[in-house]
Amino acid sequence: MACRFIQVVALHQATASLVMGGSNDACSFSWNGLAQQVEVAGTFNDWRTPGVPLQKYQDEFHMVELMLPPGIHQYKYTVDGRWSHSECAPVVKIGMHNVNNVVLVKGDLGGGARLPPPPAALVVQTSSSVADDAVHTGT
Question: Which residues contact 11 (CB under 8 A, 6 or more apart)?
Fold first, then answer.
């Protein structure tokens, strides 16, 4: 439960500044790292490959701006033909081994998609509180 809360909060914070107008909004995708060819695909294009190519600006920086409808979009990059997610963007885990990046695109003045509000409080149990529990329960 704590991990899910942290992912929702990270997604909420990372995308809070994407408040733009219009039915489709500009969303930038970038990849840092050595690569000859980088593409992006996701729920916004039904995961079709080849994906949308990113423009190479420098040896280690690629970028593209896409117009996306409001909503939560999952995506991944293909870097020189291999699927990869960015370590610099929020992620969502699908099953045990698949990780996708995720972005929230808000519509007209913040309309469109909305994240559920984060839980009011997060209780994190540390190793010292575990030891305290063991003392109190006699284990």
Answer: 90, 92, 102, 104, 115
